[in-house]
Amino acid sequence: MTTRSTIPLGTPCWADLWTSDTEGSRRFYRGVFGWEALDPDPEFGGYFNFARHGAWTAGAMGSMGDMKANDTWKPYLASDDADATAKRIEAAGGQVRGGPMPVGDLGIQLVATDPTGASFGVWQPRSFSGFAVIGEDGAPSWFELHTADHAAAVSFYREVFELEVTPVADTDEFRYFTFRSAGTEEDTGGIMDSRAWVPEGAAAWSIYWEVADMDATTARVGELGGSILQGPEVTPYGTLTEAADPAGARFKLRTSP
User: Fold this and answer.
1) Which pTM value belongs to this model?
2) 126 shares a domain with 93
């Protein structure tokens, strides 16, 4: 478990769900993780937060008018200057899709797409920094980008967020790099060469949620209308499972070794 009071540049600091079924999502994630689903905030288009032990652990929102939800989870990477980060995103070949825009006094957000097609958010904190706890039951555990253009993805995130990137494996059979904020000692995510199963331009981020009991959690996923897409699989990095909620949003579960 890691407890954070500040979040370094480029570190995954928040995650939210864009769902076509807000009420169903509220029921599902309450049941799977034991989260509390807080009331929607009309000031922010009905956006609402899930809380764990009284602290926000994820956000969610539904469709907004003509903008129909695509049932995906999205990570946010920390920034100390959202305007400057937006410029670096464009300069490095990405696209800013929305923002930067203030979210009350909480912070400044933007949504972007990297050059390989993966959507992600950027968060410049004001009164709210993001996740306070990592790697505890019901809290986020790991963040991972799957992309068909591994070299372009590594170059982009390293350039935009000044990340330190370390090869774990670098062969055509298995290519996986981890990343961390410059000058820190803890890896916070990975970038996988997934060209064998991810089409060009269809890259996506995965968010892993820590669970203490994988069998019990996967059973709850099924009982609540979700599905298990892969696993559970025991690996050197823990027991891993890929799942989907009833609306089809994919997420991953991890029990650390």
Assistant:
1) 0.95
2) yes
